[in-house]
Amino acid sequence: MGRRILSLFQDFHLLAGLFAAPFLLVYAVSALLLNHPGIPLGETAWSAEKTVPVELPTGMEEMDAGARLKPAQDLLRQSGIWGEISYIGASRKERKWLIPVTRPGYEARLEVSLADRTLSVRERRTGFWDKLLYLHKMPGPHLADLRGNWLGMRIWKILADTTVWLTLLLAVSGIWLWASVRSERRPGLVLILAGMIILGGAVYAVCR
C-alpha cells in the first residue's frame, strides 16, 4: 500500500509539474523583466486618430461608475475592438468618456464624445516581452469589480489560479516525496533550513 501511494504521488508530481511548467515559465521570465527594466518591449507608435459615429444609449451623462460597463462594451462592439477595459473615465464638464482597452500585445484609447455622438480611437501594438508582462500583472487587484470584463481575461484568471494551486500541490508532494526517501532526508533538511534562513534574513532586511 505504501509503495502504491508513493507511486501515485510520483505520477501526480510529474504530470502536474509538466502541466504547470509553461505557466511557471511565463511568470519566471516576466518577473525577470519586471525586476530588470530596460529591455526593449517592441512597442509601436500610436496610430493616427480615427473618428466614427456611434449609437449611444440615453442617460450616459448621468450614469454612475457601476452602470458604465455595459454601454462601454457596446461601444467596443460598434468600433470592432475587443479586449479588457482597463477603466471607464467620465467628464461631465467636457461630456466625454475615456475607455482604455488592452489585451496581450495591443492597446487602444477610446474617447467618446456624448455631445457629437462620435467615438475617436487610437491604437498601438506591443512586442512579445510586453505580452508576458501583461499576463504577469493581469487581472490584478486594481478595480476588482471591473476586472474580467473580457472573456480572454476570465479564462486567463482561471488558468492563473490553477497554476497557483498546482504550484502549492507540487510543493507539498515534493516535500512528501523527499521525506519518503530516507537517504535524502538529511541533505534536504539542510537545504530547507538554509532557504528559510536566507528568506527570513531578506524579509527582515527589507521590512525592518
Number of helices: 5
The quaternary organization reads as single chain
- Which of globular, elongated, flat, extended, rod-shaped describes the shape? elongated
- Level-2 CATH architecture of the domain at 50-125: Roll
Distance between the first and last residues' Cα: 49 Å
Structural class by secondary-structure content: alpha+beta
Helicity range = 40-55%
For this structure, the CATH topology of the domain at 50-125 is Nuclear Transport Factor 2, Chain: A
Spans of at least 5 consecutive residues whose pLDDT stays below 50 are: none
Mean pLDDT over the residues: 87
Following the backbone from N to C, one meets helices and strands in this order, namely HEHEEEEEHHH
C-alpha Rg (nearest Å): 24 Å
Total number of strands: 6
Describe it for me?
By secondary structure, the protein is of the alpha+beta class. The chain contains five helices and six strands; from the N terminus they run H-E-H-E-E-E-E-E-H-H-H. Helix 1 (2-35) packs across helix 4. 11% of the residues are buried.
Keywords:
single chain, 208 residues, alpha+beta, Nuclear Transport Factor 2, Chain: A, six-stranded antiparallel sheet, 5 helices, 6 strands, 52% helix, 16% strand
In short:
The protein is built from five helices and six strands, in the order αβαβββββααα. It has helices at 2-35, 69-79, 128-137, 151-180, 185-207; strands spanning 50-53, 84-85, 89-91, 96-103, 106-113, 118-125. The model has no long low-confidence stretch (mean pLDDT 87).
